Amino acid sequence: MTDFPLPEIPPAEGMTTQEHAYARLRNAVMVGALKPGTALTFRGLAQALGLSPTPIREAVRRLSTEKAIEVLGNRRLRVPQMTPGRFEELVELRVLLETHAAGRALPYLSDVVIDQLTALDDRMDAAITARNLDALTRMNQEFHKTLYALNPDQASIPLIESIWLQLGPFQRQVIEDIAAITMVDHHKEMLAAMRARDGAALRTALERDIHDGSIRAGRAMLAAAG
């Protein structure tokens, strides 16, 4: 099958074909371009990426170990479905890891970075108004990752990205399928806490940011489906 979107990602310098295939597939899952339950095949993915099946197999192998793609046998693949228990586990892991990462990054925060994050949040507001969900997802991840990466000793970003990867397809489905969803934005609370260098307020605003909006709607969707 080839009727699914795989957003373009320019290859980094020195990146192999195999690495680029993995990066594009991983990004497609993380931003929710592939919905839960989407059926995939090695041949379909190879056609979508314009590649031979060989680099696709390695990319899928890596993504299956990250719980981003299920290998079902008989060369069939699928984006995993979400369950209520798994959803709650992933959400709470996000809270634990990201509040930790934000607190550890705070001592390295500068006014220049706060201004950069403020400008990014303004662009996110415009994306919400325009219902540009691809841009909104990318910028939201950039906002959080920029903060966490300030800690020169950070070891949490790969773990956080793993959670984003597993939540991405379902979170995007929630945003798309619930037209009346209220986009709750706690980034401005986070920015105010950053300016005050208030770690407790930053962690509280971040936890609210994670739990509100699409998380609440996701719980409602899963409850209705059950």
Short description:
GO terms for molecular function: DNA binding; DNA-binding transcription factor activity. The chain is mainly alpha-helical.
Protein architecture, described:
It comes from Paenirhodobacter ferrireducens. InterPro entries: GntR_C (IPR011711), TF_FadR/GntR_C (IPR008920), Tscrpt_reg_HTH_GntR (IPR000524), WH-like_DNA-bd_sf (IPR036388), WH_DNA-bd_sf (IPR036390). The chain has a 3-stranded antiparallel sheet. The chain folds into 2 domains: 17-78, Winged helix-like DNA-binding domain superfamily/Winged helix DNA-binding domain (Arc Repressor Mutant, subunit A, Orthogonal Bundle), CATH 1.10.10.10; 84-225, GntR ligand-binding domain-like (Four Helix Bundle (Hemerythrin (Met), subunit A), Up-down Bundle). It is globular. The model has no long low-confidence stretch (mean pLDDT 90). Helices cover 66% and strands 4% of the residues. By secondary structure, the protein is mostly helical. Helix 1 crosses helix 3 (53-65).
